[in-house]
Amino acid sequence: MDVLKTATRISHQLVKESHAAEITEMKVELQTLKDGLTRTFRGLAEKESVLQAVLPTVESLTGKALIVEQLAQKGESLLESNKAAKDISRKKSLVALKVTEFD
User: Fold this and answer.
1) What is the band of 1 on the pLDDT scale with cuts at 50, 70, 90?
2) At a CB cut-off of 8 Å and minimum separation 6, what does 14 contact?
3) Interatomic CA distance for residues 15 and 9, integer angstroms
4) Which of 22, 48, 77, 100 would be a feasible disulfide site paired with 18, CB 3.0-4.6 Å?
5) Are 13 and 5 in contact (CB under 8 A)?
6) How many Cβ atoms are within 10 Å of 26's Cβ, its own excluded?
7) What's the CA gap between 48 and 84, in Å, rounded?
8) Cβ(26)–Cβ(18) under 8 Å?
9) What is the pLDDT of residues 9-40, one digit of tens each?
10) 73-76: which pairs have CB atoms within 8 A and are 24 or more residues apart?
């Protein structure tokens, strides 16, 4: 609230010290700024409603992406364990071949 009082006090002081043409120019500039801010806030409100409408879909996709990532990790670990099992089987076969060579 102090900011508003300070701004009001400063603006009153400026009005007392300014000519009518300067005051009119300031009013035009302030109105232009106000109009721009109003358009910006309206645009933001419209974009917010669009984003709110899209948000459930994004959240759903995020959840599904996490599930896909978990499945990919499980698949990678299965592939690695399968590869390790094949390596062990291959080593056993080589050992069996070497053993039979000595017989």
Assistant:
1) low
2) 26
3) 10
4) 22
5) no
6) 14
7) 52
8) yes
9) 887 787 777 788 887 888 888 889 889 988 99
10) none
